[in-house]
Prior knowledge:
Elements: H1 2-31, E1 78-85, H2 97-106, E2 108-115, H3 119-129, E3 135-137, H4 143-151, H5 159-165, H6 167-175, H7 177-183, E4 196-198, H8 200-203, E5 207-211, H9 212-218, H10 226-238, E6 250-254, H11 257-262, E7 280-283, E8 288-291, H12 296-310, H13 323-331, E9 335-340, H14 350-353, E10 354-356, E11 382-384, H15 391-399, H16 404-412, E12 419-421, E13 427-429, H17 431-434, H18 443-447, E14 461-463, H19 474-484, H20 499-525, H21 533-542, H22 545-561
Parallel strand pairs: 1-2, 1-3, 4-14, 6-9
Antiparallel strand pairs: 3-11, 5-9, 5-10, 7-8, 12-13
Helix pairs in contact: 6-7, 12-20, 20-22
Amino acid sequence: MKGIKKLLSIILIATMIFTLVAGCGGADQDSSNDVSDNDASGDEVKTDDRGKDSDSKDDADVPDYLNAEGFPIVKEPITLKAMVSKHASQPSWDDILVWKEYEEKTGIKIEWEEVSSDLTEKRNLALASGEYPDIFYRASLPDTEIMKYGSQGVFIALNDLIDQYGPNFKKLMEENPATEKAARMPDGNIYSYVQYTESDPIQINPKLYINQTWLDKLGKEMPTTTDELYDVLKTFKENDPNGNNEADEIPFTAQSLGHVLNTLYGAWGLRNRGTDHGNVDMNEETGELRFIPTDPKYKEMLEFVHKLYSEGLIDEEIFTMNSAQLVAKGDEDLVGAFAHTTVQQIGTRGDEHFVGLTEALKGPHGDQIWAKRGNIGARGPFVITDKCEYPEAAVRWIDYFYSEEGGRFVFLGVEGESYQETEDGQYEFLPEIVDNIPEGSTFDQVISNYVPYAGGGIPALQKTEFFKGGETHPVALEAADNMSQYTPKEIWSKFSYTLEEIEERSALESDILAYVDQMRAQFIQGKVSFSEWDSYVSQIEKMGLERYMEIYTAGYERYEAD
């Protein structure tokens, strides 16, 4: 009898083991079917070595209201409230084609709180009062607020939600680690989807455009060095290239002095890690971070700009310029060279007369860099607050725009209604939309009836192929292509700082950079002699430069360690 019981026990145990093994094996077998690269929603799906969908969701983990994949996102319609920055050229966001189409596609209605002015004040008031929406979309959230309200739980951590419902953004972080470094705060959490760009025409900003008509008339070649640039500008000033018998030519101008300087930093080897850190880069000789505005090469660059300014080769109004003034000067054929992202910024004569540099300017020490910004633009364009009852749906809603399909949708709209694919595989807005812009209207106003990107800062995948702003206009496209081979091999993305570091750094930076800007203008205008340079550097050091760089270094080391 005991033997029979023992035998039955062995059989029972063996049966249980077989069942468990078969169950596990069955799960693997069921998951080994081929999975397409994109699901019906445009989400890009990864597979592990066994072909199993590594982003698949256990139905038990998915909220009842939600479809884990595909469209619609929700089983029954829901509404989310969002505060958004509305650009002056845009209609009500409810009337933009993309949002009407996306509501039908997803089952999610966005109740937009449109803010056209005083965005910072209204956003801060909403957060301070506790009367804030489910989502802040393109609301210009600075790092301080992301960290502050993230640590308080007002902005929810997205780590797990992205892992489960954000395959496209997850893929970007895996393929480009700088994306995750920029998105992840020092406490280890991701509180926002960031703006992501893969486009040299957009990231190489500004470009230097030269009046080719004037070059041809005066028999000058495109400048390739700073000395040649000086010679060309001087020739423009002295030889009446616009042919009106007046000495009214403006050899070099821009919307601001900063734009002018941005075309010259690289000729002195400055900004060798890109433009996201405008005042800090790497001292290649010491391997330590460098504060650019106190570096001897920065002094040399300012001396060159002072020379241009003192000889009337830079617009005398450069310190007070605005966009409208720049357009007017271009339309009057007064400009020989200008710095900007797009050629249209010089007015209606841009396409006809201006081309970009063919080579990055080489400086006196042989430096030849043209800096660009990294892939990450705005770091806080999309956060979900603790008011949101449907955070899973909100993540699925935004994540779509980080796929190729979703990026094309948000920047071009609906194929056949707002854009078309050409025979050579390019995308363009429909001719009947952009070739018949009403008098008194603008390109941005017309396309804003279809797409929401006017004003920038859209949380999405932004690529040259489907972004059709001035940056991807043929002249700007060629100018960027010319400069792309001169961009730094390593581009720093944004560093992350603790809340305490942010607050201390901001206070130091505010004082230091205000002084830097003040003295920069005075050096260039000749109001302060360059013999006072050492005194200028000493004053910056007294203002806490050493501590400022210690904090910056902490952010850099954290960035490198991630």
